[in-house]
Structure formats: C-alpha cells, structure tokens
Specification:
Alpha-Beta Plaits, hydrolase, five-stranded antiparallel sheet, Jelly Rolls, protease, 26% strand, alpha+beta, 36 strands, 16 helices
C-alpha cells in the first residue's frame, strides 16, 4: 500500500526553495491613456468656493477651548476617481500649507466616460494654520499666474467637499441610544496627530491635550490619564462623561472619535461534563522548539493534575481564579497543545512549547477598562520577543464597521505582527446571528487585523461533509487590507454536535464558539512549524489559506467562510501525487522592484492544467488612514506563455490589437507591416476585474495582505510560464519613495489535468534547485544562546 505522495515507495514531497527560480524583470511601460476627469477645475470652483467660505466662517467662531493651540483640522473629500496614490493632491496641499494627518472613509459617485455608480472614497483630514483656508479661498477664486498656483488649481477638481469635522462623524454612538439622560458612561476618545515629521505622524501636543482634559472636567467628567496610549500618531484616552454631554465634547476640533468603551467578549456557556477521559501523551516534551506559543486567556486549572498541561502558567492578573474564565482558558490551551480531541483518545506529543498567560479576570471593577489593561499585558509579553505564534480567543465586544475607524487593539497588534513577525490566530467572534442591518454580525476586534489569521466556526470537523457556518460565527467583510474575514473556518461546535473542551483532569466540557475553533488552527500551525525547516509569519499565513477546503457556495458566501474550512493538520499538504506538485517560495522584495519567478512546469508541458497560487505578506499599517490602512501592495502578474504577445496596429489603423504567438508566421507578417509587439508576454487575469480604476482594484484585493487564486489552463496555453511580483508602497495615501523591503511567501500548486502520471517526477528532475521538504528532527533542542536558524 502506498501513500498519496508515493508510488512503489517513491516519496513525492512538497518542494522548497522556489525563490531560486527568481529572475529580474524590466518594468514594462504602464498607463491606460489620458486620465478621465469628470469635472474641470473651473466647475469645481462653483461648489468649493461656498463651502470654503462657510467653513472659514464657522471656524472663526470656534472658541479656544474647542481647538488646538496652533492649528485647526479640516476635511477634504476626494472624488473616487482620484483614490490612487498617483493622484494624491500633493501640489494643492503643499500650496496652502496643509499637513495630512489622517483620513476617513466616505461614499460618493464614481464617474467614468461610460457611467456613474456609487463607490467608496475618503476624506482627507488636514492640519492647517489660521491662514490656510484664506489661501485656499484665494486660490479657488482667482489662481495666480505662477507655476505652483497653476498646479495647485488644477488639482482642486479632485475635491468634492471641504468642511470642518461634523459632530456626527466624531461621536460614534448607537443611533437608538438615548443621550438625553444624565447617565455617566465610559468613552474612548481618539485624538488626531499634531503633525507629520519624516513621514511619520506625531502624537498630539501636551498643550492641546491639556485643553481636552480641561474641557472634559468642565463638564464634570473624568479623564483616565493612566491609560492614555499613543498608536501610530493617534492618542487613545478613556474618559467618563455624562451621555448628554457627549455631543458637546465631540465639538472639540482635534478629536477624531468619541465612542462608548467596549467590554470584553462574554465567555461561552459550558454544558455537561463527560465521564470518559483523555490520556496524556506518552512523550510530554514538544517535538521542536522553533518558537514558543503564547495563549492569553483565563489560565489553566490545576496544570499538574494529570500531566496534560506540562507548561508554564503565568498569572498576569492579581485577581483570584474564576471558574468560567479558567475553564475557558484550560480548554483553549488544551486545543493549542493537542488540537481536536475526542473522549478516549490519547493526546499526541505537543508540537511546540506553550505558555499560558492568565489575564482573566482583569483587576478592574467595573470592567470598563479591562480591554486597555489586557492589551497592555499582551504587548508587554510579546515585546520580549520569545513568542512568534499567539492565540487570542478573547477581545472587545466590538464588530468591525463600514466606517473603519481605527481601533487600538487592531492597530497595536498589527504593528506588533509587522515589527516582530508574529502570527496572531484570533477568534472571529460569536455574534454571527445578530442583526445584519446594523452590522453587529460582523467579525469582532481584533479579528479584523490585516496581518493575522481570523478564524470563524463551522458545524462539523473535517473530513465530514456537508459543512456550513456555525450560526453564531461572526462574518465578514473585514477592514481594508483584509476584507476577506474570517480568513477561514474550523470546527467550533453547534448545539447538536458540541465541541469537546478539555479539562485538566482529562474529562471534557461541552461548549461552542470560535474561541475553540481558533486554537485548533493554532495547533495545526504549531505542528506545521515542525514540518518545515524554516518558517516565518508569511509562510504560516499562506498554508491554511492555500490548503483550505472551499465550500460549494464559495463565491456567494465568502463573507461566511472566508477562503474555506481550514486544515486540521498539514501532514497531507507535505505530500504530492504523481500528477501534482506544491512549491513554496519565500523571498523579499524592495519597494518599486519587479521580480519574476519561473513556474515549475516541465519542458514541453503545455497543459491542460490547474494552478492555485497563494501570496501572503505582512504590511506596515497606518491607523490614521483607515481606508489606506496597509502601506504595502504586492501585485501578482501571471504570464502563462513565453511567446504569446499583444500586437498593436500601426498608427492610424482602426484594426484591434491581437494576441499572437511571436514564433508564428503571422507574427512575422505583422511585424513587416509595421505592427509592434509588446515588451512582455501577455498576462492572464488573476483577479475578478480588468478595470484599472483604483476603487475596483481595491475591491479585487490590490492592498490585501493575503491573496488566493485558482486558474485553469487549456492545452497549449502554457509554455515556460512565469509569475511576477511588484511592490508598491504608499504613505498617507500618497506614493511612498522611502526604501523598504517586504518579506513574503508564495505557494504554487500545479496539477496535470491530463493525468499523465509524470508531472512531479519531471519537475523534480528538471528543477534541481527545488528541494523536497524534510521534517524538523523530533526532540531537537537548540542550545541556549545558539543562533535561531529556523525562523526566516
């Protein structure tokens, strides 16, 4: 009997070192003709001039206690036609002396030569001095003859509106919430950056912050200064005020948001306890020590009782243990250690060391400040640098919203993920059955992270079918940068098939929740690190998406399932069949570069074939720019045939362009007649759009940190196929020219639809730089102080 990846004892393993097939690519000419401008600057003058004058009049009446010491904040709404970084109104902002310190999401109408349709857009948040609006009014009314003035005036056509911040945009409360009663509530205040220096936003100055504190106190409120935190230039500070006073406080000009402080998510309810027990592993030590997994939860009850939890349990909270918290923490930690278990099983050897950090219950009563305190503990531990894989089955009760206002949990953890190459596995939340009209059913913070793995729940574990979303599992879409949320689903239990939650004595409690689906994925990723010689966060994010099981209604219900049901184990992913190959590419790319990779296809293989590609990378994030949250975009281009080129007709001809084999006699004839061949072979579209409009490109995933594509090729469509990766960077919505490098991982799977039975062997023989994967040696111990060589 042979395994799926072997024939007569021949092992066919996943291939590594795909980056050895890299080659440099000369940038091809870009551009789709002249830019379509829906309005002229003269037309824009007609609506902008009254807006500017009205805004100036309103801000002149703003008392000192409602403004910053040396500046005011205004907003400028862009038409959707100008969302791309190349159309950023830099000349206009520079002319009036405006400093862009953030943006908000908004809606507008995208106008093209053929149609007008609703589209998302953004409002630039600008810090200006008292003379900036006067200069803007003069420019719009009568631009001067100088080059700078003319360039600035040309860009006013990109603005739909200029206004001061609206209280309705700042005060983020439930429309049905009564604010007429003198009820005191805890709010989270978010203050704009003061300025931008060397491209980085600078947090609010002390003098302006003092004005905010004085304003709150003048209304009888309290500022919790001990919990003031800055993230990406934004200042987050909790304040307790009467609900009736919140609209007045929201008039403070430097204030970005004022919203109720969310509580920590409630724990799932536990059901019956099983009579049978699990047996501890015969080998309690982990398989490898590539990294240590961190679990932040309710701790572990009696970890030494049966030997199932031979791990450190660190109490970060001084509060005594509470039963529901510790039962939840024990179950989550058990799933991280052993994956999905059933009564009567013997637990397998844990793949990696695990540390449990008890943060529940937090030391605050009432618990309004719990979220801030817990997040502080997580940050403090992770900045030590010992943990590269983190399970979070907790977070605030706060669903991601369409306005995408920055959240401290999401922003802090995304920055940690980028700076320290950490993989966060986050439970998506259990409010999927809440009201969809209000958006309460959507994934909960911090499952909206751009650099994490968010996990929803399904009703049955693999390989059982059919499967669907568990009714409680929170849904997408997520925030820009990772709209596909959750990334996938895993078994989390339902009423008629509960999740077996491990207890320290080896028995089980019944429960349901994404809290338990997430650690099953964490366990699978921990096991994956022992199967690969080197990993990083991008590798660990690529694998679950690449090998996810698609639902039969994938396209219609992606907001429910993400990319599909995630694997319980990646053991099968390490194996290939004779007609199939998996290749892992791990590389990095500098800003502005384009690199190519030859695809692993045998010489003379022309199809038919199927290919799947997954690209994963971590991106720097800009919390001040919710619509431009991720700073890096890696664009993929597939060129399936080395000789297929696009031929353009001679100037003056009305014939359409053609795609022709360069080696054909027809191509030679056209060249003699004055036709011109493109610089690069024809590209095959990977996304669901051929539009060059930035709004459409964003919807198709241009700035997403995780992409997955599946492509079919007919016979003759393939010949020396290649993939190209291009890195584009932005900062504050404009093109960024500063030098940066982004690591990424790419998984490519190719299968021979013809079933000839030789694809893998032919690839292995031809591409000798590719190496079959070998599992990390069991029990390998890294000496103290030795160089960590298993993490890229």
């Amino acid at each position: 009997m042979t395994t799926p990846g072997s024939t007569a004892g021949v092992a066919r393993r996943l291939l590594l070192n795909g980056e050895a097939m890299r080659f440099e690519v000369e940038p091809a000419p870009t551009g789709g003709g002249p830019k379509y401008n829906p309005f002229t600057s003269e037309q824009a003058r007609e609506w902008l001039l009254p807006q500017i004058r009205s805004t100036r009049a309103g801000l002149r009446e703003l008392p000192d206690e409602l403004r910053a010491v040396d500046r005011i904040y205004i907003e400028a709404k862009l038409f959707p036609n100008y969302l791309a970084p190349t159309y950023y109104p830099e000349a206009l902002l520079g002319y009036i002396g405006a400093v862009p310190v953030g943006s908000r999401s908004d809606a507008s109408i995208l106008r093209t030569a053929a149609q007008a349709r609703p589209s998302g857009t953004r409002r630039l948040i600008l810090a200006v001095d008292d003379t900036a609006l006067e200069r803007l009014e003069s420019l719009v009314d009568a631009p001067g003859p100088g080059r700078s003035a003319q360039q600035a005036f040309e860009q006013i056509r990109r603005l739909e509106e200029v206004a001061s911040p609206a209280v309705s945009s700042v005060l983020r409360v439930d429309p049905e919430q009564s604010i007429g009663e003198q009820v005191s509530s805890l709010y989270e205040a978010v203050l704009h950056p003061r300025a931008v220096r060397s491209g980085e936003p600078v947090a609010i100055d002390a003098a302006t912050l003092d004005r905010w504190v004085s304003l709150v106190e003048s209304y009888g409120g309290t500022v919790h200064g001990d919990f003031l935190r800055t993230v990406g230039g934004l200042t987050f500070v909790p304040v307790r005020v009467a609900d009736a006073d919140a609209p007045q406080l929201a008039r403070f000009n430097p204030l970005r948001a004022l919203r109720p402080m969310p509580a920590i998510r409630p724990r799932p309810r536990f059901g019956l306890r099983s009579a049978s027990r699990i047996r501890p592993p015969t080998v309690p030590d982990p398989i490898a020590d590539v990294t240590t997994v961190a679990v932040f939860d309710g701790g572990v009850r009696d970890p030494d009782q049966l030997g199932l939890f031979p791990i450190p349990v660190i109490d970060l909270t001084p509060e005594p243990i509470e039963a529901d918290d510790v039962d939840h923490g024990t179950g989550v930690t058990g799933a991280v250690l052993y994956g999905l278990l059933r009564s009567g099983d013997q637990a397998a050897q844990p793949p990696l060391p695990v540390e449990s950090f008890r943060v529940m219950p937090p030391p605050y009563d009432p618990g309004d400040l719990d979220g801030y305190w817990i997040l502080d503990q997580i940050k403090d531990i992770l900045t030590e640098g010992r943990h590269k894989l983190v399970n979070l089955s907790l977070g605030p009760t706060l669903a991601v919203e369409d306005d995408n206002e920055p959240n401290r949990w999401t922003a802090e953890l995304d920055q940690l993920a980028w700076e320290r190459d950490i993989v966060f596995v986050v439970a998506a939340g259990n409010d999927g059955n809440q009201d969809r009209d209000t958006g309460l059913h959507r994934v909960q913070v911090p499952a909206d992270m751009a650099n994490a793995i968010s996990v929803g729940a399904c009703d049955v574990p693999a390989p059982d079918r059919p499967w669907t979303r568990a009714p409680y599992s929170s849904m997408g879409p997520g925030r820009p940068g990772n709209r596909t949320q959750p990334l996938g689903v895993q078994f989390g239990g339902v009423d008629d098939r509960m999740f077996d939650v491990l207890c320290a004595d080896g028995t089980f409690l019944e429960a349901t929740g994404t809290s338990f689906a997430a650690p099953v994925v964490t366990h699978a990723l921990a096991d994956l690190t022992t199967r690969l010689p080197r990993v990083n966060s991008s590798v660990l994010r690529a694998f679950p998406v690449h090998f996810a099981e698609r639902h039969r209604a994938f396209k219609k219900r992606q907001d429910e399932f993400g990319f599909g049901r995630l694997p319980l184990s990646f053991a099968d992913a390490m194996e290939c069949t004779p007609d199939q190959v998996h290749v892992l590419f791990v590389d990095e790319i500098a800003r502005g570069d384009i690199v190519g990779y030859q695809l692993p296809l045998p010489r003379y293989f022309t199809g038919p074939a199927k290919m799947s590609v997954t690209l994963a990378y971590a991106s720097p994030v800009e919390p001040t720019q919710p619509t431009e949250y991720t700073s890096a975009s890696l664009e993929l281009t597939l060129r399936p045939h080395r000789n297929m080129f696009r031929f353009s007709p001679p100037t003056g001809s009305d014939e359409p362009a053609r795609e022709i084999d360069l080696a054909s006699s027809e191509a030679r004839t056209l060249l003699m007649e004055g036709w011109k061949a493109g610089q690069e072979p024809v590209a095959k579209t990977l996304t669901n759009t051929t539009s060059l409009n930035e709004a459409d490109l964003r919807d198709s995933g241009k700035w997403e940190t995780l992409r997955h594509y599946r492509v079919n090729f007919t016979a003759g469509e393939l010949d020396s196929a290649r993939l190209e990766v291009r890195y584009v960077a932005r900062r504050a919505g404009a093109l960024d020219g500063s030098p940066t490098e982004v690591p990424f991982a790419m998984l490519v799977s190719v299968s021979d639809s013809g079933g000839n039975g030789t694809l893998y062997d032919d690839i292995a023989a031809q591409f000798t730089a590719l190496r079959p994967v070998q599992r990390v040696a069991a029990g390998r111990v890294r000496l103290r102080g030795a160089q960590q060589n298993t993490w890229y």
